[in-house]
Amino acid sequence: MQELVDANRILKTPMNVACNVPSDAEISFLDVVRITDLAMRRIISMVKMLSFFNEQTQSDKIAILKGLFFIGLRSCKKK
To answer: What keywords sit in the KW lines (predicted)?
Structure first.
């Protein structure tokens, strides 16, 4: 459990993404891509700290990361 708590610290740090739009304007597609890229990099850094993830085969690691990506996309879906 402590391993997961330690790995989760990466996700608690603020994301440093510069979106050049006022707070009341919609962000551009490029901004969404930048934010998604940074978020996925942070998730990859986190899971690399987990022994369970490191014990998996390369194809299983890719499948896990793809699954996390699609779960993230679904959570962004407009309601």
So the answer is: Receptor, Transcription, Transcription regulation
